[in-house]
Specification:
The structure is a single chain. The chain has 14 helices and 21 strands. By secondary structure, it is of the alpha/beta class. The chain has 2 domains: 174 residues, Flavin prenyltransferase-like (Rossmann fold, 3-Layer(aba) Sandwich), CATH 3.40.50; 196 residues, 3-Layer(aba) Sandwich (Rossmann fold). Helix 5 crosses helix 8 and helix 10 crosses helix 14. The chain starts with 8 loop residues before the first strand and ends in a 12-residue tail after the last helix.
Length: 409
Amino acid sequence: MSTSFAGKRVVVGVTGSIAAFKVAGWVSTLTKEEALVDVVMTEAATKFVAPMTFAALSGRPVFEDMFTTEQQGGISHIGLSREADCIIIAPATAQTIARLAYGMADDLLSTTVLAARIPVIICPAMNVQMYEHPATTRNLKTLLSLGYQVIEPDSGVMACGEEGSGRLPEWEQVAEFVLREICTKDLGGQKVLVTAGPTREPYDPVRFISNRSSGKMGYALARTAFRRGAEVTLISGPATQPVPGGVHFVSVTTAVEMYKAVMDHFQDKSIIVKAAAVSDFRCAKQFDQKIKKDSSSLIMELEQNPDILKELGELCDHDRQLLIGFAAESSNIKEEGRKKLIGKKLDLIAVNDISSAGAGFEVDNNQVTLIDSAGEAQLLHTSKLKTADLIWDHVIANKMLKPAGSKSP
């Protein structure tokens, strides 16, 4: 199953806020990702960004006035909501939020929303005092009770010079919530724990032992699981990726910190994916001061870190928890993978062939072999995001999911 915007039809409602210029970038990104985008602008929105800008970026006419549009044939507010997969209102001003909360239908955007039987995602953007006003708070609660998805605004300095909540979030965060609304929720009800990234084992205040993991595969698994309806916790070492929107994020640095975080969070999870590249060893001694390179010699004694995956294999209730491991191998891929599957009591293992060109560490693509008790399946060489979807497809197609909503031990 795809968790992308390709082939989706999205209505973007733009209202009168200085943040409207940011939404032009959203429309451009959606179009590049092969979505069909229809933009509906309020009269106030046209004072901030010219409709021609959105028409050029979407490659489609912009809808502004209900009566002018309908004189051209068709009932636009009905057709727009009937043919689309979702509606995004961004930026959503206090005025627009109030009108929607009271079910008003006095312009094209509000009538389109009122006629909609598809997901409606609202992205508030306004001055912090307006956002925190009791009337706005009440109206947002009303919208939530009506089934609309409301995305929390960011905090920071605004165009008016004040600082606080009310800034329009970045598209990378909003996109995750939109995709969750329009994708098939075949992981709905599942509680997923994903570990990702490397760990760092310091030996003085500025240096550490680590590995080449970027965290991209683990983050892709967390992102796609959220899009497919799961409740996701992501425990990550120092990675190069932005935190995906919608996931509960736990930041760690060392292997011991990751071990403690995993032990704190795994018990109520129905799926555990151990994709992190955890250091096998740590320095037995950490120096308080920076080691000078003119030292005559340096010998570091190493000690083993906890084997998190092996301990999970022992502790998991395999009747209600699915345990998925990852392994990076350069030879004897299937043999080494099956050995770890059995030795660490996993339900499924994904083996990366790190000798393959353009796959593995620090790149955007991957090719993994999935191994379980029933056999083996080699996935396509593709992007890590697509690989993540293929892994979830395999889990679902092979009926590996445990009953959702299982109680904690």
